[in-house]
Design a protein that fits this description.
330 residues; alpha+beta; Helix Hairpins; D-amino Acid Aminotransferase, Chain A, domain 1; 2 domains; four-stranded antiparallel β-sheet; 11 helices; 37% helix; binds nicotinamide-adenine-dinucleotide
Length: 330
């Protein structure tokens, strides 16, 4: 192993840089670079690690979800880890994802559910005998922050669901609608406070307030899209799950579709290239998920991401590159 090579030095530099930006993004809710720039640096690190797997360490940003969590809230260990998603940036990479799945599930019938990727933050909601008892951030994927009192202020999160189950975990995205985000930033500018860089950071900053009264004023909303484990609800697929979540009175994003072919998935994704800008909430991509839970289980997960899903990231918007301009001029 040549730890003095230029490539190794570059790897070390990238890890430090990505760690710093993750801290700004996840812990401080104040990114200094655009997501696209972060993603490109991350990709470069992944490429170097692919070339030199002997250099991979468990603390590399490619092996960890999120960032260190800050103090202030009680910590809660998730029953099942909350993972991130692998990402792709073009059609070719989507076709490669499809091929990997088909290589693993030879001759099986395959269906994909494609959902909008809501640009917010993932939370885990715990219900016991139908009663909401705890809300937790994703944190580092294993341990999150207990934000129960703040979650209670979000009106689109039901405090009771129609279920006798001892324990159900519903996962999804807390987000800030675009009009609330714009109003909040106008107010912050008036109050001579720094505006939030984007709705995602505004949502994260609002949800992780020590005073739930502040969270309550921030007009957050929630879309449900996952369970923290299959808990005897007899659900066999993502499609059935989304239906059941609606029956539990969660908001489920209505734009999801089911496809059998990746070429149709790609067409659907591109139908959102422009239209997504008219949505009342921010999206940063689309998530393609293998529909069948039994196939998902067989495909499994890495330490960081499921192998049965992928996020297609939309190209950066001009507004996102503005964040980059600011950091460059500082
Ligand atoms: P991610 O945002 O790329 O994807 C995973 C997340 O997508 C999930 O945890 C969930 O919160 C969310 N999601 C939204 N809709 C979903 C749906 N329908 N189904 C499933 N999941 C859905 O991964 P991440 O680990 O949360 O964050 C990494 C990303 O954060 C980077 O790719 C980068 O874009 C951004 N980031 C930016 C900076 C910066 O400085 N700008 C720093 C760190 C991270």
């Amino acid at each position: 192993m040549d730890n003095t090579s230029d490539l190794y030095q570059e790897l070390q530099k990238l890890r430090k840089l990505l760690e710093y930006h993750s801290y700004r993004y996840y812990t401080k809710d104040k990114p200094e670079i655009s997501d696209y720039e972060y993603d490109m640096q991350y990709r470069r690190l992944e490429d170097i690690e692919k070339e030199h797997p002997e250099w991979i360490t468990p603390d590399s940003p490619t092996q960890r979800v999120g960032s260190k969590i800050s103090g202030g809230f009680a910590k809660y260990t998730h029953d099942r880890p909350m993972l991130s998603l692998g990402d792709v940036f073009n059609d070719h990479e989507l076709m490669e994802f499809d091929q990997r799945i088909r290589n693993d599930l030879v001759d099986e019938k395959l269906e994909y559910i494609v959902e909008l990727k809501i640009d917010g933050l993932a939370v885990n909601l715990i219900y016991e005998k139908g009663k909401f008892v705890r809300g937790v951030t994703r944190g580092d994927g294993r341990v999150g922050e207990d934000i129960t009192n703040n979650v209670r202020t979000i009106r689109t999160i039901p405090l009771h669901i129609d279920s006798d189950s001892e324990h159900i975990e519903v996962r999804g995205e807390v987000y800030m609608p675009v009009d609330s985000f714009e109003q909040l930033n106008e107010q912050r500018i008036e109050d001579e406070l720094e505006p939030f860089a984007n709705p995602r950071n505004a949502a994260a900053g609002s949800l992780r307030q020590l005073d739930p009264n502040i969270t309550a004023r921030r007009k957050l909303a929630f879309f449900a899209y996952a369970l923290g484990g299959n808990v005897g609800l007899m659900i066999q697929s993502q499609e059935e799950l989304l239906q059941r979540l609606k029956e539990f009175h969660f908001h489920v994003n209505p734009e999801y579709r089911k496809f059998a072919d990746m070429s149709d998935v790609i067409q659907f994704i591109h139908s959102w290239d422009e239209r997504r800008r008219d949505l009342p909430y921010a999206t940063d991509g689309m998530v393609v998920k293998v529909n069948s839970f039994s196939q998902q289980e067989r495909l499994g997960n890495t330490v960081k991401i499921p192998r049965w899903a992928i996020a297609y990231k939309f190209p950066p918007e001009r507004a996102e590159t503005k964040v980059l301009d600011i950091s460059v001029s500082l």
